[in-house]
Amino acid sequence: MRNKVLVTGGTGYIGSHTVVELQNSGCEVVIADNLSNSKIEVLDGIEAITGIRPLFEKVDLSCAKECTEFFTKHTGINAIIHFAASKAVGESVVKPLLYYRNNLNSLMNILEAMKEFNVPNLVFSSSCTVYGQPDKLPVTEATPRKEAESPYGNTKTICEDIIRDTTKANPELKGIALRYFNPIGAHPSTKIGELPLGVPGNLIPFLTQTVAGMRAELSVFGNDYNTPDGSCIRDYINVVDLAKAHVVAINRLIEEKQKSNYEFFNIGTGKGVSVLELIESFERATGEKVPHKIVGRRAGDIEQIYADTTFSNKELGWKSEKSLDETLLSAWNWQVALNK
Ligand code: UD1
């Protein structure tokens, strides 16, 4: 029997790329999304790539009633990937209750529904933000989590704990948290990619919009950090590689390969890249110049973080494959396609 996977937030950036990989691997997908930060047209892109239009339901999972109605209507789901969440770090500082209400309630409603409707498997979209600024780099899964820098980050830490405690109390439920580093790039088909609404807060959409002439120049936030070139270091992972990690995690749950009911993994490349190195890589890969200037540090930014992927590579049998140049070229090709 085909596996039926619910993807919450499936019209979002990472969600849509994951739906493509799930469908390519033979899964039946149903998307639940409230379209608060995505567009319904994303379904056209998914269909153009895979030939299959996933089932879609517009639903706010932070509302218990809507969540129950969803699971009553859509039966036979055997795994869930939970992406749907608010994710703007800065906004979360200004509106913490919005973030706690949305991100925590939706997860708790889903866990209640998993019990009620006998859905045993959950993959959760977590973040390297749970590590804060680690004392030692690279970070392994044994690296202690630190107090979050933002309410957004704190929701990821709390959600991980909610899943840990709930799977412990309900052994029929199983969970995997994937701690993403910095997902970037787009599907090589240019049919789906990141669709920021308004002025992008993240580096790559701001950079590609700048090169496309939509913004005057990119601000590099700080060159006085304790790093080789003074700019911040991150672990930039290709979004398709990241999407594939979800398929592996789903199979691990369904095939009961877990070592314990709740597991968590670092999903990155293992390579730290500075903002200035990234600009250089973009220029090399695309042949385009990136107009940029150095400005002051951005409040709340950590200096550097990158993953040790030894454990996830070995345990999951998954590895990021695409080079940074290739990934940046995909981000640029997506921007070009969007502007057409
Ligand atoms: C952060 C979170 C991540 C979260 C993401 C969502 C951490 C470690 N990471 O990523 O979990 O999912 O926000 O928004 O907390 N930069 C510039 N100029 C710009 C934009 C960014 O120089 O215009 C720099 C930043 O200073 C940073 C890097 O680019 O060094 C990446 O920034 P960004 O894309 O915003 O992601 P993070 O802040 O790393």
TrEMBL record:
Q: Which UniProt keywords apply?
A: Carbohydrate metabolism, Galactose metabolism, Isomerase, NAD
- Per the entry, which co-factors are needed? NAD(+)
Is the keyword Isomerase in the record?
Answer: yes
| EC number(s) given by UniProt | 5.1.3.2
For this protein, the record's InterPro entries field holds: Epimerase_deHydtase, NAD(P)-bd_dom_sf, UDP_G4E
Q: List residues of the NAD-dependent epimerase/dehydratase domain.
A: 5-268
Entry keyword NAD:
yes
Q: Which GO terms describe its cellular component?
A: cytosol
Highest taxon, organism lineage: Bacteria
Catalytic activity of the protein: UDP-alpha-D-glucose = UDP-alpha-D-galactose
Signal sequence, renumbered to the chain? none
EC top class named in words? isomerase
* One GO-annotated biological process of the protein: galactose metabolic process
Q: In which pathway does it act?
A: Carbohydrate metabolism; galactose metabolism
Single annotated GO MF: UDP-glucose 4-epimerase activity
Q: Which family does it belong to?
A: Belongs to the NAD(P)-dependent epimerase/dehydratase family.
* NCBIfam families registered for this protein in UniProt: galE
* Self-association state and partner proteins as the record states: Homodimer.
Protein name per its UniProtKB record: UDP-glucose 4-epimerase
Read off the lineage from the record.
Answer: Bacteria, Pseudomonadati, Bacteroidota, Bacteroidia, Marinilabiliales
